[in-house]
Amino acid sequence: MDTVLSAPKPQGVDDWLCDVAGQETFYTALSRHLAKQLTRQASGVSLADAEAFIDAGLYHARQRDEASDDRLMSLDAPEDEAVAPSISLFELDLDFARRQTPLIVRAIHFPACDERLGYDYAALLRLFPALYFIDCHFTCEPLSLGYSTHSRFEDCTFDLPWRVEDGSGPGQDHVLFDRCRFEQGIAIQGNELGQSPIDSALAFFRDGVIRGCLCLQNMATDIPVFANTLAEKTQIDRIALEHCELGGRFTLANTGPITDISFNSTVFLDKFALIHCPVGRFSAKNVNFEGLADFYQSTFESFLVRKSIFRDFAGFEDCRFGAADKSGGRITLRYVSFYSFTNFRSATFHLPLDLRSTNRREPPNFLDATFSPHARKSTDRETFRIIKHSFEAVGNRIEANAYFAHEMEAYRRELSEAARRDGRHKRFWERLLVSLNFVLSRHGQSYWQPLLGVFACAGVIALQQANWHRGWLTWPAATPDVIPALGATLNAWASGMVIFRPLYAAFPGQEAFILLMAVLLSTCLWHFLVASRRHHRR
Hints:
Elements: H1 3-6, H2 13-17, H3 20-41, H4 47-73, H5 89-92, H6 94-97, E1 103-106, E2 109-110, H7 121-125, E3 130-134, E4 137-138, E5 146-154, E6 157-158, E7 162-163, E8 167-168, E9 171-178, E10 181-182, E11 186-189, E12 201-206, E13 209-221, E14 235-246, E15 250-253, E16 258-268, E17 272-275, E18 278-289, E19 293-294, E20 299-310, E21 314-315, E22 320-321, E23 331-338, E24 342-343, E25 348-349, E26 353-354, E27 358-360, E28 370-371, H8 373-378, H9 381-393, H10 397-422, H11 428-441, H12 448-470, H13 482-495, H14 501-504, H15 511-534
Parallel strand pairs: 1-3, 2-4, 3-5, 4-6, 5-8, 5-9, 6-10, 7-11, 9-12, 10-13, 11-13, 13-14, 14-16, 15-17, 16-18, 17-19, 18-20, 19-21, 20-22, 20-23, 21-24, 22-25, 23-26, 23-27, 25-28
Helix pairs in contact: 3-4, 9-10, 10-11, 12-15, 13-15
Protein name: Pentapeptide repeat-containing protein
Keywords: Membrane, Transmembrane, Transmembrane helix
Organism: Halomonas cibimaris
């Protein structure tokens, strides 16, 4: 192969387009190479016949373009007559003509081209019904090969932003881009009818690297986006889907870090799978997941789903939301409807979760899910209530009680925030009761705290009785008369509690103190019994 074909071309498009001699050299070398490649792949085709086919094809293509321009200039212009002989590809090789065998184009560095400058090598490529680019390098704008040429790419590199032009795909047995590398992203945009720019393919991508953004816009297609293997780890910086309807599977697994995934006004008709993928920011707005949606073992630094529907099973098993050393972001599911089972089993939450604005046909599964201290402190009460109810629905009282404690702690925070916002007297008694419940037993989750309270009360009673009988501490002689009178009044008031009179008989003159300690002991014992019961499965 001529070295001018494989030699690196200038990154600057303008530099190459100004080099007319370089364009002519490359164009001539490519034409000769394609003719030789045709003779290698098609048995019985001579180099002269291959060159004649290319020359005739270029001539007739120019004739068609000129005729089209003449018709635009004047509708009355006569049609041009063919003045050059034509060699059909059917005369050379039927397999090539019927697209059963693609012409292999290997290890060529394609520079920028401009059809207006007279050395448009894309016209050479459009002569062949099927092309197979292997290990090629493209420093050019996207090639427009049209619907008459099937094309596919393997191990190719694209230096400039690439776009899939309208044309024929590689067929249902082949991937359009196999292990290719895109240095500045790639866009696949629907045509004016909202259809895929290519008619058929096994998938758009297999493995490969995409630096920049993979953008799919305004199209409906049954072609799967990915058909990756486990042999290589796919690298994608960003993924953006907007106004798309995907009838094929959307499956990504075991990829490198993905900075951003954004879905907007998109419908996934088949299975959606994002498995073991590290994602920075995930956003889905106005998205319908009509098939199964599986996010197994993926990690997310930020997660937002808004005005979306999960029609089938939605799985977030073993997912991690947020990083342990970061506290920003939130997991928000707002105006989201789950029509089937939702699974958060063994998920790890370093970010607060918000399920208040979700609709659920079945209770979600949060078995073995863990919340970091930051996530617990910032998750709202309604979310914990939803999780608690999901455990109650299956009879898991122990986990339900644990999330009841989280719910009550979130309620305590709500009351404190309301007091700071509306004044300290706002719902004071309710706030006091919830705070006491937390202090005594952490909302029924700790039986050691109320048990220590019982021991503390017993110790106080023992010290008071010893002091009562031995007089270690007494009121000084100069004590105002109002203090003994107040003590007598409190004892008289406590004596009104008739159910404690048998107890008062053993402690005359100490009725108020005994009433206070009896209430504290009863409260601590009740919290101890409740906490003990909550740690036993019913």
